[in-house]
Amino acid sequence: MSGELRPLDLPDGDSQILPVRDEGDVKSSLLFVGKLAERVGFNPVARASVMTAVSELASNILKYAGRGQLRIRAVAGRGKRGIEVVAEDHGPGIADVQLAMRDHFSESGTLGLGLPGARRLMDEFHLWSEVGKGTRVTIRKWKA
User: Fold this and answer.
1) 8, 85, 92, 125: most buried by Cβ count inside 10 Å?
2) Using CA atoms, how far apart are residues 102 and 105, in angstroms rounded to an integer?
3) Are 84 and 75 in contact (CB under 8 A)?
4) Domain range holding 65?
């Protein structure tokens, strides 16, 4: 489906690449995606879902890779409007993706709900990871 997506033209910038280097960057990304969700027309629940998923992805970048980036943009496709977020790092990668996608699995002592929770909150979720090369997660939420 990604080949059918196109940027959604909104005033005041509808796309941004945001670095993730510290907690301040996580907060900045949440502000950006929250405002973008409003401009796309998301209801408060959908807006909160996107913000929660972005928080989880950005926090994972900090926790496991130390730094990375988020590409956040409004998109349109198949007659729908939505938001796409690509979280990417060049960290250690995930050795067992299937295990990492299970609820309550954590290598860092957390609740282990980040990636599986983000998957449940979004309409689309794609994860690529290779040990020693990094991780890329693409999520999309469509306006109801």
Assistant:
1) 85
2) 6
3) yes
4) 2-142
Exposure on the CB side of residue 90, measured as CA atoms within 13 A: 1
Does the pLDDT value for residue 29 go beyond 60?
Answer: yes
Angular region, 109: left φ>0, alpha ψ -120 to 50, beta rest: left
Query: What's the number of domains the chain is made of?
Result: 1
Taking the CB of residue 68, how many other CB atoms lie within 10 A of it? 24
- The predicted model scores a pTM of 0.85
Q: Which is nearest to 114 in space by CA: 30, 47, 54, 44?
A: 54
89-101: b or e for each residue (b if 16 or more CB lie within 10 Å)? bebbbbeeeeebe
Q: What is the CATH number of the domain that holds 45?
A: 3.30.565.10
Question: What's the average model confidence in pLDDT over 85-102?
Answer: 87
